[in-house]
Amino acid sequence: MRNVKHKRQVKEEETITKQSKAKQIKAEENDKETTNPQFLFLHHFTETLVHLWWKLENMPREIITLQVGQCGNQIGMEFWKQLCLEHGISKDGILEDFATQGGDRKDVFFYQADDQHYIPRALLMDLEPRVINGIQNGEYRNLYNHENVFIADHGGGAGNNWASGYHQGKQYEEDLMDMIDREADGSDSLEGFVLCHSIAGGTGSGMGSYLLETLNDRYSKKLVQTYSVFPNQNETSDVVVQPYNSLLTLKRLTLNADCVVVLDNTSLNRIAVERLHISTPTFAQTNSLVSTVMSASTTTLRYPGYMNNDLVGLLASLIPTPRCHFLMTGYTPLTVERQANVIRKTTVLDVMRRLLQTKNIMVSSCARTKEASQAKYISILNIIQGEVDPTQVHESLQRIRERKLVNFIEWGPASIQVALSRKSPYVQTAHRVSGLMLASHTGIRHLFSKCLSQYDKLRKRQAFLDNYRNHPMFADNDLSEFDESRDIIESLVDEYKACESPDYIKWGMEDPDHLLTGEGNATGTVEQK
């Protein structure tokens, strides 16, 4: 018995000795490998690649904002006020003492001057001085770079005439592009431009159109997104040539922009009256709604998560076909004052369900009519902010699918995409969860059809055309620009209508005249410029 135990003990000791020798040999081999120059090179090379990948992933893709005309500068000013609040930046561009949490990308929309205060990557442009002078004399006067401000020498404006605004844009091209080039050269990784403007006046529509064409030509590999304010269709406008201006601008938005976020004044006023119970909404109140949409739509760029961290990713998921790049928005819960009385509990399901309700959509063409009810969603992206559990999102999507609350096109993926984003820790809001919907919807064609209808009424009577004949583009009674613009917008309406059909993929292949530019087919995606 003792011999057996002794043999077993000896065997165990031999095994342990062999294992220790094997470990020693392996350690010696590892030491040889780590001192091998080839191994060291590969090791350091891999570390460098990982570091570069991390830097690229975390490098902000800068966006330059162009504020053009009275409307563009007003909504732009509200946008920057909101961004300063959300990032803890003072009215003078200085980071507040309490803004220490980090985790945000300020450099997407701001840059730091030599004295470390933050300056918006913004260019303020107008042909008359009133609005910009108001900004320069206001409480945020020290926020902007004064070299990035352009006011025409004469200060007479464009007289609500698209042709005048366009011609002056061409006239001042060197000054305007010098500002843009300087700002672009100061960016490390410029992703694109955002244009804020109105389509109905003179400067925002005319000079805005010229800038769109120029940016598309000079910065062809950069994205161009616009926040375009459409006029109130329910009120008589002071601008009698509004239908002409709108049509000519729509042509440039169709051909020269990668994405257009439609801000419909008709719907904004309705929401202010019906949802916020404001009997007579002011420009400041409707502009506050616009700034809410603009800041919420950029939140995934400024507070990055796992998805939609840059403009390309955001737009590629929303625009499966390049010409149908007009987006409508919805936002809930809406409040004019941040500390409003809270009378409901917000949940992910409640927010996502309300975003699909017509009364919360900021485009009037989606009103409850028989024709509008046949319209379909091409794509939907919900940006949900607040205290959200991903399982709640999954359950909410399941409930929406079961209740058939969304009518999608048949030729694409019938799914609502959801991006979760953190709220700013520096802004106290009355609600736990809030949401923004960005959607491509075929019903938006009714807004364009209304623009065509109003244009046709004026053109039939040959009304106010002399205002345009006085400018080079329409000299010698050449009105072909109007005719071409009308054809392009009519083709756009036809394409949105065709999107409702199951065989849209084949649309335009047999009849190339349906295509807006006469090239390619009717399908595609946002080009990664």
From TrEMBL:
Keyword Nucleotide-binding: yes
Family as reported in the entry's similarity comment: Belongs to the tubulin family.
BP-aspect Gene Ontology terms: cytokinesis by cell plate formation; cytoplasmic microtubule organization; leaf development; meiotic spindle organization; microtubule nucleation; mitotic cell cycle; mitotic sister chromatid segregation; mitotic spindle organization
PROSITE patterns to which the protein is assigned, alphabetical: TUBULIN
Function, in words: Tubulin is the major constituent of microtubules. The gamma chain is found at microtubule organizing centers (MTOC) such as the spindle poles, suggesting that it is involved in the minus-end nucleation of microtubule assembly. Tubulin is the major constituent of microtubules, protein filaments consisting of alpha- and beta-tubulin heterodimers. Gamma-tubulin is a key component of the gamma-tubulin ring complex (gTuRC) which mediates microtubule nucleation. The gTuRC regulates the minus-end nucleation of alpha-beta tubulin heterodimers that grow into microtubule protafilaments, a critical step in centrosome duplication and spindle formation.
Cellular component terms per the entry's GO annotation: cell cortex; centrosome; gamma-tubulin ring complex; microtubule; nucleus; spindle
SMART domains: Tubulin, Tubulin_C
Identification of the protein by name: Tubulin gamma chain
Oligomer and partners: Gamma-tubulin complex is composed of gamma-tubulin and GCP proteins.
CDD domains, per database record: gamma_tubulin (cd02188)
Keywords noted in UniProt: Cytoplasm, Cytoskeleton, GTP-binding, Microtubule, Nucleotide-binding
Species: Erythranthe guttata
Tubulin/FtsZ GTPase domain mapped to chain residues: 106-305
Record localization: Cytoplasm, Cell cortex; Cytoplasm, Cytoskeleton, Microtubule organizing center
